[in-house]
Specification:
Blueprint (H helix, E strand, L loop, with lengths): L11 E2 L9 H5 L5 E3 L5 E3 L9 H5 L5 E2 L26 E5 L1 E2 L2 E2 L1 H17 L3 E7 L3 H10 L3 E6 L8 H15 L3 E5 L2 H14 L3 E5 L1 E4 L6 E6 L6 E4 L7 E5 L16 E4 L32 E5 L9 H10 L3 E4 L1 H5 L20 E5 L5 H4 L7 E6 L12 E4 L2 H15 L1
Parallel strand pairs: 5-8, 5-10, 8-9, 9-16, 10-15, 11-15, 17-18, 17-19, 19-20, 20-21
Antiparallel strand pairs: 1-4, 2-3, 6-7, 12-13, 13-14
């Protein structure tokens, strides 16, 4: 395989086989492929990033590309660089406690941990820190944990990164999970970095997909690149645990089984030696508008750049109310000053998982899709038939939303 000036092995087109179907052009995430005057696809080597997407979609095998196979790592070798002689096993989840109750994202991650543990043939482990968290430990078992390790003490009632980080890192060293998942909340993002540093482990933040590579048993952590349109899959060969944070509502909440049995282990609280910061008070969450959070609605109608028109918002709001939901928006609408940030859906906004998501004039970039992939049904309305949103929508309507929305409103009112 040839390389570009950056040393990246790039794809090449076999001109004799190319049928000019242009599928590779549409699938290339960086726009490195164009159709030549001779009617043959051509790869610009300096633009190509070597992802191999064109190779995967070519229907006539006209792309020359070879994906490197990673060397299989034996069970005894996995994690050897982190701590020699230690066997790592199990998928662990940090059960975040806030205001006396567990953060829902923790139970969402337990559901995903069950899937990963099934593939690894291992146990699901929960870590619970706080004060009077016995009931939360029980809930962790009901949602799918086989073992729950708990540290409950009055001094753990308020989150501070130093004691939480030290105690959680020590639990990891004692239990030795192979995989460790943490919710990407404000608390989780802070804590994950502390624990990863103490353990000398890698950390992949804001993942949208988690899976196990069959050949090696490695955790495949998928997330969007920063500001780009490429999904990157990251793996950690030599450090354990393999750590990942996941945003709320990305994973499905599993069913709660009140008859499920598991083991709960209580660990002694070891106070930190150095003086800690004194908490003198809290600033409570304030909702300036008094409105319910958009993540709590069963239906959302989202205005994208193609519907960035304040005169159309009353119509979109009416549709949202008929569906039992509310109006949301994408980043361009917020940047135009037409709607507040609290209503923004996207990678830099809020992750949502409504039963029905209606995208109006939304192009459907990766940054937006990762925030709506938990929606049960997606309806897309866009005048551009090639808009990426149609690739993920359950129902797609091509046309002018100014004509389509009134027709939908009329039909909904007739059926009420």
């Amino acid at each position: 395989m040839s390389k570009n000036s950056k040393g990246i092995e790039v794809a090449e087109i076999i001109s004799d086989k190319c049928i000019a179907c242009q599928i590779c052009i549409g699938e290339c995430p960086v726009g490195a492929i164009e159709l030549s005057d001779e009617g043959v696809a051509h790869v610009d080597p300096e633009v190509c990033v070597g992802c191999g997407k064109c190779f995967e979609v070519c229907p006539v095998e006209a792309v020359l590309f070879e994906k490197k196979k990673r060397k299989k790592i034996s069970k005894s070798q996995r994690g050897a660089h982190a701590l020699k002689g230690v066997s790592y096993e199990g998928v662990a989840v940090f059960i975040e406690v806030a205001n006396g109750s567990a953060a829902p994202v923790s139970f969402e991650l337990i559901g995903k941990a069950k899937e990963l543990a099934l593939k690894r043939k291992c146990r699901v482990i929960g870590f619970v820190l706080g004060n009077n968290v016995e009931k939360i430990a029980d809930d962790a078992v009901f949602y799918g944990c086989d073992d729950v390790h708990m540290v409950s003490h009055p001094e753990m009632g308020t989150y501070l990164s130093r004691p939480y980080g030290k105690i959680l890192a020590n639990l990891c060293k004692e239990v030795c999970p192979e995989i460790f998942l943490i919710g990407a909340t404000h608390l989780g993002r802070d804590l994950a970095g502390v624990v990863a540093t103490r353990l000398g482990a890698g950390l992949t933040a804001d993942c949208t997909g988690l899976d196990i590579e069959e050949e090696t048993g490695l955790l495949l952590m998928t997330r969007p690149t920063f500001g780009g349109n490429i999904m990157a899959t990251i793996f950690c060969e030599h450090r354990r645990p393999q750590m990942s944070t996941v945003r709320p509502r990305v994973m499905k909440l599993p069913a709660k089984d009140l008859f499920r049995k598991g083991n709960i282990f209580r660990h002694e609280f070891t106070p930190i030696e150095d003086p800690l910061a004194q908490v003198v008070g809290f600033i409570s969450d304030v909702k300036t508008s008094g409105e319910k959070d958009i993540t709590e609605y069963p239906a959302l109608v989202t205005a994208g750049k193609g519907a960035c028109d304040i005169s159309a918002f009353p119509m979109l709001q009416e549709l949202a109310e008929l569906l039992g939901g509310t109006l949301a928006c994408t980043r361009p609408v917020v940047e135009s000053g037409l709607m507040p940030y609290e209503r923004q859906v996207g990678q830099t906004g809020k992750t949502v998982a409504p039963k029905l998501y209606v995208a109006v004039g939304v192009s459907g970039a990766i940054q937006h899709f990762v925030a709506i992939q938990g929606a049960e049904k997606i309806v897309a309305i866009n005048s551009d038939e090639n808009a990426p949103i149609f690739q993920v929508a359950d129902v797609g309507i091509v046309g002018d939303y100014q004509k389509i929305i009134p027709a939908l409103i009329k039909q909904l009112k007739e059926k009420m």
